[in-house]
């Protein structure tokens, strides 16, 4: 055998070994154990309200729940991760064509309650599953204006939740997320899953070998905005909780519109037009330099972005995934970002806290918010073993973020 052939074989063996090691990167029981066996185990713990909802919707649970993606389908190298969604796709902003008075939506409700002056609205007496397209457009506009809108007492199947999400944009299907199986779901080479991800902390803590500890903050409970590493990040996101403890587990939303209005005119002028780097939650390996450690998907987006429906400016940064401001020295960037993160986190007058209390037996509660103009925080002040909660989430991807120099702030628009 020639030296060159030996070198090639050695190189091939190196990358073969590397890829085998990389499969251990997302260390969890989904890899160490038989996935179907683990799914069947956890099906036994599925809360009764969730099981009833799924059975009513015809969800097939014979192979266990939730469905865990095959580790072989999860990207291990950064180039593979970028390829999942690296091309711009068409996006229609449904809120733009909505009746600004929202007559079709609001006239059908029994009651509309604004939870704070400019943030958070609860609509009473409407079923999301029954909305027509005009009402869906108007709901998108209401969410764009009020940041987050709540609906209690919802009889909502996962399929209807997904249908609503598809109306508002391309569904984010995450290769690493646990999901609800659908009878007619199909896969492609890059993505797995139905687009309906599972929010079930008891399960996720066990899957990731994470022990509940009141003294330690769970990593994903910090204030954050979903999917900012995407070329076209999330717009409207819909979380439907079908299993809700009597107390605890509130969620807090903070307004990006109001955060921008908290800034002085001079600071607004400084930030307008600047960009920052936003990274993914999950790390990967660099195929060309695998020994340098974990690397992340990174995108450059405007720090101040304009919402296409309202035309209002919003501060678009978050502690969890915004790493640096382009053009500033590292120390300058760190100081500025820390101040901006604090605006979202420390100002109670730009936040709304929602209590997920049960409404009536057999019905769930939905929160629908716009990730382009908000951050949120899941309060983990409940006992996962005795106060189980379970929900499903659908995220619709929106436009490529942009800044329009002629756009104005929310308070300017409202004449405040």
UniProtKB/TrEMBL annotation:
Q: Output the superkingdom of the source species.
A: Eukaryota
GO annotations of cellular component type: cytoplasm
An annotated Gene Ontology molecular function: metal ion binding
Give cofactor(s), names only: Fe(2+)
Cite a single Pfam family from the UniProt record.
TauD
Q: Which InterPro entries match?
A: AtsK-like, TauD-like_sf, TauD/TfdA-like
Instruction: Extract the coiled-coil ranges from the record.
Output: none
* Keyword list, A-Z: Dioxygenase, Iron, Metal-binding, Oxidoreductase
PANTHER family named among the record's database cross-references: ALPHA-KETOGLUTARATE-DEPENDENT SULFONATE DIOXYGENASE (PTHR30468), ALPHA-KETOGLUTARATE-DEPENDENT TAURINE DIOXYGENASE (AFU_ORTHOLOGUE AFUA_3G01010) (PTHR30468:SF9)
The similarity comment for this entry is: Belongs to the TfdA dioxygenase family.
Name listed for the protein in its UniProt record? TauD/TfdA-like domain-containing protein
């Amino acid at each position: 055998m020639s030296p060159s052939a030996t070198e090639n074989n050695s190189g091939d063996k190196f990358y073969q070994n590397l890829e085998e090691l990389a499969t251990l990167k997302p260390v969890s029981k989904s890899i160490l154990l038989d996935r179907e066996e683990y799914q069947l185990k956890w099906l036994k713990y599925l809360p009764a309200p969730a099981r009833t909802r799924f059975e009513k919707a015809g969800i097939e649970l014979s192979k266990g729940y939730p469905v865990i993606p095959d580790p072989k389908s999860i990207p291990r190298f950064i180039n593979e991760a970028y390829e999942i969604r690296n091309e711009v796709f068409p996006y229609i902003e449904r809120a733009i064509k909505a009746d600004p008075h929202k007559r079709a939506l609001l006239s059908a409700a029994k009651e509309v309650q604004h939870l704070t002056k400019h943030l958070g609205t609860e609509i009473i007496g409407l079923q999301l599953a029954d909305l027509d397209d005009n009402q869906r457009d108007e709901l998108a506009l209401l969410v764009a204006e009020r940041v987050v809108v709540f609906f209690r007492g919802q009889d909502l199947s996962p399929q209807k939740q997904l249908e609503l999400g598809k109306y508002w944009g391309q569904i984010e299907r995450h290769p690493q997320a646990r999901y609800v199986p659908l009878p007619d779901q199909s896969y492609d080479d890059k993505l797995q899953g139905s687009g309906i991800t599972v929010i079930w902390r008891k399960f996720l803590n066990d899957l990731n070998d994470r022990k509940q500890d009141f003294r330690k903050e769970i990593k994903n409970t910090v204030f954050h905005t979903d999917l900012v590493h995407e070329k076209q990040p999330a717009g409207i996101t819909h979380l439907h909780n079908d299993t809700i403890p009597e107390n605890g587990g509130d969620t807090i939303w903070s307004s990006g519109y109001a955060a921008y209005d908290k800034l002085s005119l001079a600071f607004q002028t400084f930030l307008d037009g600047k960009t920052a780097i936003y990274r993914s939650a999950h790390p990967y390996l660099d195929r060309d330099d695998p020994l340098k450690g974990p690397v992340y998907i990174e995108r450059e987006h405007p720090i101040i972005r304009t919402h296409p429906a309202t035309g209002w400016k919003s501060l678009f940064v978050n502690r969890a995934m915004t790493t640096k401001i382009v053009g500033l020295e590292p120390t300058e960037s760190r100081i500025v970002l820390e101040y901006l993160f604090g605006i979202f986190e420390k100002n109670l007058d730009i936040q709304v806290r929602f209590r997920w209390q049960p409404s009536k037996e057999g019905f769930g509660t939905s929160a629908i918010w716009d990730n382009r103009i908000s951050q949120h925080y899941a309060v983990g002040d409940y006992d996962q073993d005795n106060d189980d909660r379970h929900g499903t989430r659908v995220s619709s991807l929106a436009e490529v973020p942009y800044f329009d120099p002629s756009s104005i702030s929310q308070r300017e628009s409202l004449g405040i």
